[in-house]
Specification:
By secondary structure, this protein is an alpha+beta fold. It has one domain. The chain is about 25% helix and about 30% strand. The protein is built from 4 helices and 8 strands; from the N terminus they run H-H-E-E-E-E-E-E-H-E-E-H. The strands form 2 sheets. A 5-stranded antiparallel β-sheet has the order 3-2-5-6-7, with no helix packed on it. It is elongated.
Length: about 170
Amino acid sequence: MRRIFLKPTVLALMAVVLLSGCASIVSKSSYPVSIRTNPVGATVSITDKKGKEVYKGQSPATVTLKSGAGFFSKAEYQVKLSSTGFGEKVVPINFKLNGWYFGNLLLGGVVGMLIIDPATGAMWKIQDPVIDEILVKSIAAISTTPTLNIVDIKDISTELRSHLVRVK
């Protein structure tokens, strides 16, 4: 009776090992990215490395993005954040090699390492799944009436920094 179940079980196990990659088994090929901005409600536009818009909405948002962009090619995205009265900000989303990809040396074999994981994109892993940005008021939004504003220099865009004057 045991022999009847043993053969299908062994065949099923062999199929799983031979027809899948290690990163495909343990990891995933799409990752959620959480986008938060200050001010809330900023326009969010995400484009892939070919310039195609893959998402448009408002913050806060959570968007699921593919990690692969073709065979052996990792995805790259640009997140453009904008809001009325604030400067525009562009934040890159990058992917790196997934450590589980090297598990193919033990589990997935050559098929997993050279075909399955590169084709599914599971060989890549997101570097930073959270985007939390503060948008800076644009020059046009700043009042012409002289005022004193104390702002952290980290919150000022490089464009505005070029207009700063050092006070002794």
